[in-house]
Specification:
The chain has 260 residues and is an alpha+beta fold. 20% of the residues lie in helices and 29% in strands.
């Protein structure tokens, strides 16, 4: 039996996330659509394992998935067939046969999320589905300094939504904030030019709780707007203060997953 690893790119705009909680094979989810097409090609029931489970409207530059199959098709042929039958907003970037021990969910070492914000007076028509439009002024230095308080190993349960059986202690390894022409070219959307109105947040950790990147980014934006003080961060960790809302999900991208 082969173990196939896929690297997938998708636009999450019209999907209900990677997978609806507690359900499999839902056609309006990324995993549901992918499972449907893989089963059609291999004539087998398929179980997918993903490096991270993205929510409704969240996009992916490089989601990692693996599945087991008895197909005689090569990894290259599988990639070609999948890209032929999948909708245009889901693309297989690479496919390879890997060790039977590889597990996209269990072997992930780091996960990186990217969040895009646009502060122009009017939202750009062509990038509005991929950026949070916040027509206001942000204090870059205040956000940069505040982000340092979030780094390291902490209990992030107050920066997430929903209950989990997993440990809520996570290692937040880095937060990089870029503005305007300092945004690396390889992190720009294909259809955009650098603009001083754009901010980009890159968050890297060993794992993330449900919607944790959205709550972390919202906290930094509130500090950048001056509606929250950086001194509130320790109080959020302790539960004495709260993050009352989270950023809209359409500005979030699953950017990279690394493996041991």
């Amino acid at each position: 039996m082969k173990n196939i690893k896929l690297t997938i790119q998708y636009d999450g705009t019209r999907y209900q996330g990677w997978q609806k909680p507690g359900k499999k094979g839902i056609s309006n989810t990324i995993s549901g659509k992918l499972t449907e097409v893989i089963s059609r090609i291999t004539d087998e029931e398929t179980t997918l394992f993903a490096g991270a489970k993205t929510d409704t409207n969240v996009h992916a530059d490089a989601q990692i998935v693996n599945f087991k199959t008895n197909t005689t098709l090569s990894a290259l042929k599988l990639k070609q067939e999948l890209n032929h039958y999948l909708p245009q907003d889901i693309a297989i970037i690479s496919a390879e046969e890997v060790s039977e021990r590889f597990h996209a969910s269990l072997n992930a070492q780091t996960i990186t999320y990217l969040y895009r914000v646009n502060c122009a007076p009017v939202a750009d028509v062509f990038t509005r589905k991929y950026k949070y439009h916040l027509p206001d002024t942000l204090d870059f230095n205040a956000m940069q300094h505040a982000s340092e308080q979030l780094l390291g190993r902490h209990d992030f349960k107050h920066f997430s939504s929903g209950k989990t059986k997993k440990s809520t202690e996570k290692d937040l390894l880095s937060i990089e904030i870029f503005n305007g022409f300092h945004i690396p070219k390889d992190l720009l959307l294909k259809c955009e030019q650098p603009s001083d109105a754009d901010f980009l947040f890159l968050l890297k950790g060993n794992d993330f709780l449900h919607q944790m990147p959205l709550y972390l980014t919202e906290t930094l934006l509130e500090i950048g707007l001056g509606s929250r003080n950086a001194s509130s961060i320790p109080l959020i960790f302790s539960g004495e203060d709260t993050v009352s809302k989270r950023c809209p999900s359409h500005g979030l991208f699953l950017h990279e997953i690394t493996y041991k």
